[in-house]
Specification:
The chain folds into 2 domains: 1-52, no CATH class; 55-91, no CATH class. It contains 2 helices and 2 strands; from the N terminus they run H-E-E-H. It has helices spanning 11-20, 71-88, and strands spanning 23-29, 37-44. The longest helix is centred in the last third of the chain and has 18 residues, at 71-88. The termini are far apart.
């Protein structure tokens, strides 16, 4: 993972890091009640200059083989992300 020698979470510092060397971080998951395990490493190498704000929506942008559990929480998240999209007028 990338070490960023800066206090707090400044988006400008993150942008500078992406522009210079890229930034990477590990994604972990905790299956059931087990501890966290490595799942993936995400690397960001460039910014999309066409948009200032890109909405993160794991409901619309998840692999079809990924199933969120428990089901009741997945239903709650699905509804919350749908309402968020409607509130932002993005569909």
């Amino acid at each position: 993972t990338s070490d960023i020698d800066a206090p707090g979470l400044s988006l400008e510092v993150i942008r500078d890091q992406i522009d210079s060397d890229g930034i990477e971080f590990d994604i972990e998951q905790a299956p059931g009640t087990a501890g966290f395990q490595p799942l993936a490493r995400l690397t960001l190498r460039h910014l999309d200059p066409s948009r200032d704000d890109i909405g993160f929506d794991p409901i619309l942008h998840s692999d079809e083989d990924v199933r969120l559990v428990p089901g009741w929480l997945a239903d709650f998240r699905r509804a919350a992300y749908r309402r968020s999209r409607e509130g932002r007028d993005t569909g």
